[in-house]
Queue: 4 jobs
Job 1
Amino acid sequence: MSNCEEYPSAVVANNGSNNMSHDEETNVDNWESEKLSQIPFKVLRGHRDGVNSCTFCANGTHILTASDDGTAKLFKSHGVKLVTNFAAHSSPVTKITVTKNSQNFVTCSWDKTVKFWDLEMGKVLWSGNHNGIVMSQDISFDGKMVVSCSDFDNTIKIWDASNGNLIHELIDHHAQTPTCCTFSPNSQRIATTGMDRATKVWDLVSKKVTAALGDHENIISTCCFSNNERYLCTGAWDKTLRVFDISTGMYRSEGSIKLERGHAGCVSACEFSSDSQLLVSSGYDKNVVIWDANNFTKKLSMKGHGGWITDISISPDKHWVLSASKDKTVRMWNIENYKQIPMVIESQRAMGLKITECVECGHSFSIGQLEDDAEFSKCVFCRLANPERNDLPSVM
């Protein structure tokens, strides 16, 4: 028997009221906007309780969500149509992740289980058990492993994704409840955060902790790697994010980069864009913040949720940001043209910066107002990839 129900009709956005009938919902425009808002967005509705997790899948064409109502849902991005409802768990679902090929997804829950699903069939392929609430989980980039963490014995478990067999178990990996676990892009390291204010990087080859990071002044709630594997970002209840240059090891001598004044409440989630150019964070202050990952300056804040924001996700093309909230909704923000917003332009000017475009890769990057666009025609990544003398700016 399948663990899913098919929904033939759309669950789409409304004009701001949460009390519309189904017939009214299906006859309104999918686009919504707050007064004076310059970022268009869509709203996904359908969960009966707070939404804890969200992620893009199928190259950004679909969205997976997970909720306190015990369900996971699959939406189409275009038209925000509800496709499938998965009766996932008997308790709140804390996290949902998807494989890179979007054939499988994983859920975890307060019911102490981790479940590995076939997305198309809507069936659970295997289920793993913890002794306590499963706080978080992730799938390795190569799709071969699943990592999960629980609160009872502060345990990290690593599972074989093909059959659910337990590969490694790290008991008391943190001194207090672990809050997040995630794989590095090369699938060789696992970063975990905890209520003990510690971030640990565990190496799957040496089977040892290769980095123990601190710097936060309160519980660390989330972490993420940049796709180029240079940075590890952490977010905490102290309202800040910390960025560690783990590729060069510069954090050992110079410490982490502190990102503050972005959130007025606990940071709940963070994620780098696929090209590692942007960093997006969310918090219990109901804000989504976009940061420039080249100089780690704040670019934009997006507000509108009526409850804590619990999770975020960035589409592969960087045109959309998802935010999940305790207000029972998921918002889909269109940030494709955010650089043209006057507030963003003015912010760049205030910092003495202007935006130019790399002639080689097409990515935008910041340079000083007085610097010559012709001299800085390529971004730093393209210059370093081809370090010919005429590619580098003169120091004379």
Job 2
Amino acid sequence: MLTQCGILSVILGLIYISAGSEAPDVSPKFVNIAPASQVLLGNTLYFIENKVPMHWFGARKFCEGMGYNLISLDTTEKVEAIKTYLDSQRDKNIYWTSGNDLLTPDHVWFPSGKPVASELWHPNEPNNYGGIEHCDNFGHGPSRLMNDLDCTHKQNYICERTLK
């Protein structure tokens, strides 16, 4: 047995159909807001976000939600590959890395725990300026050196996933 509301819905539907009207376009209007590009360098896939900056924790969570990690510049090959790619794109942005000293006295790559190489740092960095700089970014100057920064600062970021 149809309820009054159900009967009314059927009647209105029949009236609409019999009127010969086309159904209104109720599809959502999507805008391409794809915030990042993906690039394969060697056996690593990078997701480069340079449109929607996030604080370090948000960037890390975003990367992990896609099955990636924030980039770890833990090999010379990886450092050179990403620098060369960004230079070829004329990309002057500064990006979060996975480096931090949140749980250790020294800066390490997350999640591996490998130490951040000293030659990657901008002169006089890391300095933990103001006692609040615990997350690491890179891209400073033509050599794209690293700096420690307050983790709540919003910045671009690069996610990485090694392919097998």
Job 3
Amino acid sequence: MRFTSCCGGAGAKTLVLVGKAGNGKSATGNTIIGRRVFESKRSLAGVTSTCQLETATLSNGQIINVIDTPGLFDSSVEPRLLATEIAQCIKMAKDGIHGVLLVLSIGNRFSEEEASAFASLCQIFGHEIADYMIVVFAHGDLLEDNQCLEDFWGPNCPQLLTDIMAMCGKRAVVFDNMTKDEDKISRQRKELLSLVEAVVKNNGGKSYVNYLFEALNMSEMDLIDQTSEVTCSEKSHEGKKFHIKYEEQFEQLIKMVELRLGECIMRLEKQLAEERVARLEVELKAQAAQTKSKEEMIEMKERLERAEELSKKLEEKFKNAENQSKEKASETIWSRMGCIIM
């Protein structure tokens, strides 16, 4: 179920960068913000280790909040750490998300791990989160001049990626984070933000929040109300209690996320196990068919050898019979000739 909160058209927009470690999330965030605020470098491993929020005011007055995340749903990371970072992301975007930027790399082959991450994201935040998703293809510098995504992928686009693109409404942009061309950078940012505006408009002008956001916000509001009722002399003491209570509430949020994450992991493990069993069954059937084929070939070869052997025997028998016939005919002729001579 999706809960929503209103956001004005001229209000701040919050964007969350998600994707596999090393795909170029931080570099994309720097391009959006317009300056280097996220640590970024070419690496197969991820550079970002924790969620980071940065804000920029664009030339048109638009305020942009960008949340960079580590490699969420990385199978090598402990579920507790993943849950903590997801909860931290929710905390940073507590007023709602206006766009989830799924960053993929043109330079890397789309993997089942990325497809599983997308599925986990939908299961934790709700499938409606796909209505706010935009696919960003980083490393656009790898495309040749005037080459578009359709030309790059061609007919070989992985089916899993095609399915994800369809779920995201085919919203996609290419980002060249290596370019120094300010006009190109501006065009990329403008194209992305126009998609964000379209996403918000398509969702009734509202940002995305769900029960996880609601749980955190309600806890914070309750604590603020309780604190506002105390006297000035009590505020210092109550402030400490507020902080402790808020940390307890945040811990509850982490546990909620961890629970959902555990369910996702179990579901994905079950799915992977079923796929392995299905592949094994196909392999066994293929082996059985191959074995049967080999047996049939051996049987056919043996039958052919038996037929050739029988043919040779018949031919030899025919020749022997023919020779015997000739010998008998010759004896008959000589016997007749002997009678004539006598």
Job 4
Amino acid sequence: MCVDGYYGKRCSSGCSENHCNPLNGICAECKPSYYGHRYGMTCPSGYLDDVCDREMGTCHQCKPLFKWPKCINCLDGYWGKDCRSECPNSCRSCLSTTECTKCKDGLHGEKCEKKCSYGCLLELCDQDTGVCSKSCKANFTGTYCKQCIPGMYGGNCSVSCPENCYNGTCDTRDGTCLLGCIPKFHGRYCDLSCPDGCLDCMCRSNGHCDACIPDYYGNGCNITCSNNCINSSCNMSGYCNDCQPGYFGIFCSEHCSQHCLSGECLRNGSCYSCQSGFYGTKCNRSCRKNCQYCAGSWSCKSCFNGFYGKICQDKCSYCKSGTACDIDTGYCKFCEDGFYSNKCKSKCDSKCQSCDSSSGQINECLKCKIGRYGRNKTSEFYHCNIRCSRTFWNVPKIVFTATVTAIMELVGKGA
């Protein structure tokens, strides 16, 4: 038998406490705050009265604010050696005032300072990532359940997007249509109808038409095109596509010059050509007095009958009445009866009523005076040297003239 405090065959081993079995060293009874058979393991600090199960060390009852059954950790909301320090309001449990181990429902982050998305079911999310723990509430979608499902908007995604939004898509915050409107509507909420004058009832988000129905223009296609536009057709600004004859300008509101030939002109008011006696792009400048057509004040293209020269300043001589002479030389094309030469200044032979201006011979008649006849066989002109018989003088003048003419024709044929 060993004395108290020792055990073993030779009582050479000491007990961890004073009282133990002298054969195997097992303690007969543990001191307060200890448990175990031999070596005296310390009870956790949270045990009430420092008493724990001798065999397993389990706690019979914890001190206040410690978590049973191990009495090691603090109750939720408390921390510290004696669990008397309160965790921050956002923490369910913590290790200090700056390190939360678990957040209260609806919060996440290292200090539980962030709110879980409203769209998370039960508003629960992962403390580290903020990803919803279960799933999204009805009408919410996305990793964090922050977006509304297509067609819904509002703080709780419970309001349907306006029915005229294109593809049914709208801003989840205020319901404005993000992709524009379906045809025939406009506005932030696509609740306004496009103007009636819009082609195919199509308009932009501000209500301005993309194109107008025929005969109208303006942002709202409510202004009538000018009647001076051909077919009353104009663009969105009211500019005529083309003008009615006699008008010009972007709105075809200006009259072509009264001196434009046929009264028509180009879109800028320039005449295609001018009336006689006028020149200029708009035919609003007068030619010189005797010019019929001119290109400028000092350049006549043609003269009125009876005049010639660069500015038609010279008078033709004895050209046949109603005919013109060459504008550069003054040469006549036809002479008055009794005259010949280039300018008809030379008198024909007295026997001739008219003579050839190209032969240069005064007795080369084209036509004989009444009472004379005779033809030159070599030149084919008349020489008019033969007097008619006096018998003809008692014939009435009209008959006499016709007869003389017939005789002259016979003579010309070789009589």
